[in-house]
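I am still learning, so can you show me any protein sequence you like together with the matching structure tokens, please?
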Amino acid sequence: MRLYTPEFAADPHRAYEELRQHGPAVSVEVATGVPATLVLDYRQALHILGDPDHFPADHRAWRTTIPDQCPVLPMMEWGPAGDESDEPARARGAYTAAMESIDLHALRAAVEAVAVPLINGFCESGAADLLGQYARPLTEQVLHDLLGFSPDVRDNVHAAMSALNATADPESSDLNEQIFRSAVAQSVTAKRHAPGHDVISQLLIHPAGFDDGEVVEQVVKLYAMGSEPTWNLIVNTLLLMAVDAGFHDDLVSGSVSVREAIDEVLFTDPPVQNGCPRYPRQPQIIGDVWLPVNQPVLIGLTACNNDPAISGDRAGNRAHLAWGAGTHSCPAQSVAILIVQEAIDQLLDALPEIALAVPIEQLSWHPSTFHRAPVAIPVTFPPAPPLTFLQGASIR
């Protein structure tokens, strides 16, 4: 099965159920001519993620067999969550330290300061696209602040990333990626001379002693890993609320918390549906499937989370694989959850009666092996007056 087609994107849950009939792991294609093994069994996934000796995250041997223009490379390369060799472990240590340096209380206020003007931009109209008008610009602005981009750099990053998402032309993509990297390099140079309280500065002063080029590479990967999954988690949670009247009422009444709603989505429809690539150095076997040496083994995060063998009450259960598992689980969980939770809280406080503007079957989804990514989330709601932001609080 090809995981990058519109047909797969339209109904991945049905596709996973079809694949499950062939065993706990199946051969798939993640891009044209790029094979991989997709793991569908929750316990097998835990075994693989907990065994970095047999299933390392180092993609370098596989990388030599893949053309430079392969579209899945950014999601398949090791970065801060890489293997146990010196360089990835050095990068992950610095990345983890940078995440731990973030003041979560200040971050909550920063999300609110971004959310209020965005909500005010559409609250009186009675309709909005929650992806394009809220979740995406909110995530971008908050990440720009966390990373330490200056205002002029932020404009260049936004323009380059918007253009990258809008085109499939390789030449245009290369140009926009160069613009993005140049903007990041500009920020790194500036922070080298005048560090602040931001992630770039933390990476620059880390005892690992990264040079500017190494920090640019880390920030590029951090942006890719932290942007789209975050805004898609926001909209996927809002989508669940908009289409499930009972869930919406429980959420608004407080009988279900926003955090519980987020956890439900991380189980049922996580923003990264397939991920955590591993590259076995020796032949391995899962069930009755032999895994070729250095060929990617991809964890079907959505499929494993919904494995019938682990079905049951999920109340208070955070045993999903949306953040990975083991020593390579995502170190930015608390930061991402806070951004998503505060974004949803602000929106529901202002506009509690959000409803999907079209039947859910009419929503379009970006074809993607990895991301569960809507094209847009059109909603309606009773028009409301703008919010006023005052001393860290939003009031009518």
About this structure: The longest helix spans residues 170-193. The first strand starts at residue 25 and ends at 31. The chain has one domain: 6-148+196-395. Residues 188 and 226 are 18 Å apart (CA to CA).
